[in-house]
Every structure is written in structure tokens, then in C-alpha cells.
Specification:
By secondary structure, this protein is an alpha/beta fold. It has 17 helices and 14 strands. The strands form two sheets. Strands 1, 2, 3, 4, 5, 6, 7 and 14 form an eight-stranded mixed sheet that branches. The longest helix has 28 residues, at 77-104. The chain is elongated, with a radius of gyration of 25 Å.
């Protein structure tokens, strides 16, 4: 094992974690990937065993994950360890596989394959349970929205590709200079151009972008700051909690208020959706319509639906349960309330692995470790379509994005494709305490605003709640763990971005390339050699 490369990888991991701290520059991530690709290139062009590269890269990414995701341990230590190990292992496998291709083909093919393999890995984090896209490199610019306005064309995956391309060309330029003992201007110019040009384009878009200030919606956000550990479930009764939130909303709303937004699981006493009209919590919130008849209310809630047969449930979640003669399923829901109309429901469909996601299909021995993962053997149900909510008076259409769903750009884009004018994100980040977790989560909202060109209203139980414009700027926000309300106007979006139309097309192209180069390198080429 090369101890020098191991040290370099450790430095890269520490540097990458610093890029996620809002007060530090996000472009630090470029330095990290320059160091990692340097290790990859020196290894691929040497006679070292491949396991050395895998260990070096995985160790650096493990440090990156430990520092950046340590806050997960506040909820589940075992789950945090598993996430960190899986992320680090997969990063090591990406570099290891690219190195195999490099040695069997060429430097250029190897570097292109590294980029394609990485984006393919990101595609898996977006679609395969037990992976998470949280630390995908392109997400790091959530607190630097001016640098990535072109995400409306590529999504955050374009940011990851940008980082890899800049780092790869920089490493090649430095290596060429060392080998030739002179400045190889073409490589350095290419690397500098790849770094600077997207920033210039982004700044041009940023300063020229104009919202339609003549078509706005007044939004009221309630941040009750109820401690999820000490108060929400063991202290103040649910009804009293909700009454306090209703009073906060009434004190902030006006006759022009379009939507009143309460955070995730503001109603956490489960009720059947079919019985919502007579539910005490729904009736309590409906009192707001006495003073604000033109407003609509959206609140987080835990709801249930019953089925006469097990097959009628949302079978993909495997969370359906039996109660006597019928089956039922539990949902982490967003509920839309309107004056003189039946409530509308949306069920959270991107569930947190090991916590909200049902994994009772595992073998019995594995299923018994679920309590250590912080999860449940039943899980929540999901739905297939991204439903939007419409205020019947004003016509304003909102996207009810729930917590973890805000990490998934293509997923959020489907709400916009279904007609959303504004994105609302309801969440409860209080589980993580005063850590980097809620700050990182807030940054994702800015990226979704850029990708979709939709303003965002973010309602968080303990903060940070915020109003975000279509350029990804936070225009107003609450403090952390402060009981507060926000009121402000957000411009309605009307245009449809390239990213909303085509989604994660970069990931799909990368997957196609990965399949082709893998066949050519590991199947076709050995067969040709055998025939010779």
C-alpha cells in the first residue's frame, strides 16, 4: 500500500467535507477531486495492485462521509455507519473499475469512463433503496446558487460532471508538465476554461433572470419548534400543539394570503383519510377559513387508508398491514385543506432508507436488526404519481414535497410537469439537532429552485424555514429552533426548464456508455485475444 497516496486521499476527504460548510467556499470540492484523480492516474499508470487504489480511495471517502454525515448518528448510529461504509465502498469501486478500463485501453478512455461510472453510481443513489444522493458532489453548491444557474439545463448531475471534468484536466495538465518539464499550455487552458466558463455563464443567467412580479402568491409558513424527542410525542398533547400552530398562522396571515404551510407531521396522531371530514385536527385547522376564506392550508400529517384486499394496497411499499377483516396502510402525508371542499392527500414516496422504508421482505435474521437501524419492519406506504394541490379561489398550484424528497431533482421536476407554480417543502430536521444536517438539507431547496425555476416555500418544524426565489436565493428565513412565522410573496413559475422536460438525461447517457465500454473492455476484447 502506498502510504503517501493514503495520506493524500485523507486530505482530500477532509477538504471535501469542508466544502459542505456554508461559511466556507463550495469550490473546495474541486481540490478534493483533483487529489483523488491524481491518485487514480498515478496508480493506473503504475504496476501497483488494484486493491491499493481501492483502499486509498475508499479511505479518503470514508473520512469525507464521517465528517459530513456524522449528524446521522444522532438518530441511528448503526444506520450512519452503514451509510458511510456503503458510500465509501461504492466510490472506491468506481475508481477501481475505471482504473481497470484505463490499463486495458488508454488514459483518455479511462478518464471518460471514470466520469461515466461516477454518474452511473449517482443514478443508483437516485433510484435504488439503501443508497442516498446526499453527498453527490453536484449538491455541494446549494449554498452557492450564483455559480450553478445552468442547473436548469443539467440538474445537479451536471455539477458532478463539471467537478470531475475540471479535476481530470487539471491532473493531466500537471502530470504533463512534470513529465515534460515545461508548461503544456493546452491542458492548462482547457482546465481553466472548464472551470471558469460555466461560472461566467451562470453569472450571466443569474443577473439577467427576471421573475414575473405581477403574478405572485402570498405564503405564510409556521415554524412551531416542537422538540421531536422531548415534547412532540411525550409532552404537550397533539391537539394543543396544533392549536398553537393554528394561532400562529392566524396571527401571520392576511386577507391576501394564498397558502398557509405547516411542517411535516404537524398532525402526528394517525387518522383514516376517509374519515378526515370529521377529524378533530382537520376541523381545528378549518377554523382558519372563518377569517381567511380565500386561503388554503397545507399541513403534514400521518394518515391511513384501508383496503378490502391486501392486493389493493400500494404493494411496492410492502407496508400494508391487517386489522381484522381489512387491510390498511400508513402514510407520511401532506394534506391540503380548502373552504367547503374535501381535503386532498399526497403520500411521501421517497422514504428514508432504514427509517421510513419498509424492509420486512428481508430474511428473518436481517429483519431483527431493524431496531438498531432506527427503522421499522412495516414502513410507510407510497404513491406513484406526484400530486399537486390547487387553491380553488386563486388557482395557485403548489408541489407538496416532503422532507427527504427534496434531494431528488428529477422527482421534484415531476410536480412541475404536473402544473406546480410553487414548490413547498415540509420537513422536520429537529431529529438531527444543531448539526450540519439541517444546513445541508436547506441547500438542496435552492438547487431545486434553479432546476425547475420555481420559487420554494420551506416549512421546517425547528428550522430553518425559508422563502427562496427562482434563482435559488434565500430571501427571508427563520432562525434555528425558534418559534416563528414567515410571510412573503413568491413569484409563480410559468416556464418549463430543459431539466424538468428531460430529467436526469446525463445519468442515462452515462449508463449507456458504461454498459458499452464494459462490454468492449471486459468481454469483447478478451474474446478477440483468445481467437488470436
Amino acid at each position: 500500500m502506498n502510504l503517501k497516496n493514503l495520506l493524500i486521499s485523507a486530505i482530500a476527504g477532509a477538504t471535501a467535507s469542508m466544502a459542505w460548510i456554508p461559511v466556507l467556499p463550495a469550490p473546495l470540492i474541486f481540490i478534493s477531486f483533483i487529489l483523488w484523480i491524481h491518485i487514480y492516474l498515478t496508480h493506473s499508470e503504475s504496476r501497483e495492485f488494484h486493491t491499493s487504489l481501492f483502499i486509498n480511495i475508499s479511505a479518503g471517502f470514508l473520512i469525507y462521509n464521517i465528517i459530513s454525515l456524522a449528524w446521522i448518528g444522532r438518530v441511528t448510529v448503526t444506520g450512519a455507519v452503514m451509510v458511510m461504509i456503503v458510500n465509501s465502498f461504492m466510490a472506491g469501486m468506481v475508481f477501481w473499475t475505471a482504473s481497470l478500463i484505463h490499463r486495458r485501453t488508454s488514459r483518455l478512455t479511462g478518464l471518460i469512463s471514470l466520469g461515466a461510472l461516477w454518474l452511473t453510481y449517482e443514478k443508483f443513489t437516485m433510484s435504488v433503496p439503501f443508497f442516498t444522493p446526499w453527498l453527490n458532489p453536484g449538491n455541494v453548491f446549494g449554498h452557492s446558487p450564483r455559480l450553478v444557474q445552468w442547473y436548469e439545463f443539467t440538474g445537479a448531475g451536471g455539477g458532478s460532471l463539471w467537478i470531475l471534468a475540471v479535476a481530470a484536466t487539471a491532473v493531466v495538465a500537471i502530470a504533463s508538465y512534470r513529465n515534460n518539464k515545461r508548461v503544456v499550455s493546452g491542458y492548462f487552458i482547457t482546465s481553466a476554461g472548464l472551470l471558469v466558463m460555466p461560472v461566467i455563464i451562470s453569472l450571466i443567467i443569474y443577473y439577467s433572470y427576471k421573475e414575473n412580479e405581477n403574478d405572485t402568491a402570498e405564503i405564510v409558513i409556521v415554524q412551531p419548534s416542537i422538540d421531536p424527542y422531548m415534547e412532540k410525542f411525550t409532552g404537550t398533547p397533539f391537539y394543543s400543539q396544533l392549536r398553537m400552530m393554528k394561532e400562529m398562522a392566524a396571527g401571520a396571515a392576511t386577507g391576501r394570503t394564498d397558502w398557509i404551510i405547516l411542517p411535516e407531521t404537524a398532525i402526528d396522531d394517525p387518522f383514516y383519510e376517509a374519515e378526515a371530514s370529521g377529524n378533530q385536527y382537520i376541523e381545528l385547522l378549518s377554523e382558519l377559513f372563518d377569517s381567511f376564506p380565500d386561503a388554503s392550508v397545507m399541513t403534514g400529517a400521518t394518515t391511513m387508508v384501508s383496503f378490502p384486499e391486501k392486493s389493493d394496497g400500494t404493494h411496492r411499499s410492502a407496508g400494508i398491514k391487517r386489522d381484522g377483516d381489512y387491510w390498511y396502510e400508513v402514510y407520511n402525508s401532506a394534506v391540503a385543506l380548502h373552504k367547503d371542499k374535501n381535503p386532498g392527500f399526497y403520500h411521501k414516496s421517497k422514504l428514508i432508507p432504514g427509517i421510513e422504508m419498509s424492509i420486512n421482505w428481508l430474511p428473518g435474521r436481517l429483519e431483527r436488526i431493524l431496531p438498531d437501524l432506527g427503522g421499522t419492519g412495516s414502513g410507510y406506504g407510497i404513491q406513484r404519481e406526484r400530486r399537486v394541490f390547487t387553491n380553488p379561489v386563486t388557482g395557485t398550484v403548489i408541489a407538496p414535497v416532503i422532507c427527504y424528497e427534496s434531494l431528488f431533482g428529477e422527482f421534484v421536476g415531476r410536480y412541475v410537469a404536473n402544473g406546480a407554480d410553487i414548490i413547498t417543502i415540509i420537513t422536520n430536521d429537529g431529529w438531527w439537532g444543531n448539526s450540519q444536517g439541517y444546513r445541508q438539507h436547506l441547500g438542496f431547496a435552492s438547487l431545486r429552485a434553479i432546476e425547475t425555476r420555481r420559487a420554494v416555500a420551506r416549512a421546517a418544524n425547528t428550522g430553518i424555514s425559508a422563502l427562496i426565489n427562482q434563482r435559488g436565493d434565500i430571501t427571508v428565513q427563520t432562525g434555528w429552533w425558534e418559534r416563528d412565522t414567515l410571510r412573503g410573496s413568491l413569484s409563480k413559475g410559468t416556464s418549463t426548464t430543459l431539466y424538468v422536460i428531460h430529467g436526469n438525461y446525463l445519468y442515462r447517457l452515462a449508463l449507456i456508455y458504461t454498459i458499452i465500454i464494459s462490454i468492449l473492455t471486459f468481454i469483447a476484447s478478451p474474446i478477440r485475444k483468445l481467437r488470436r
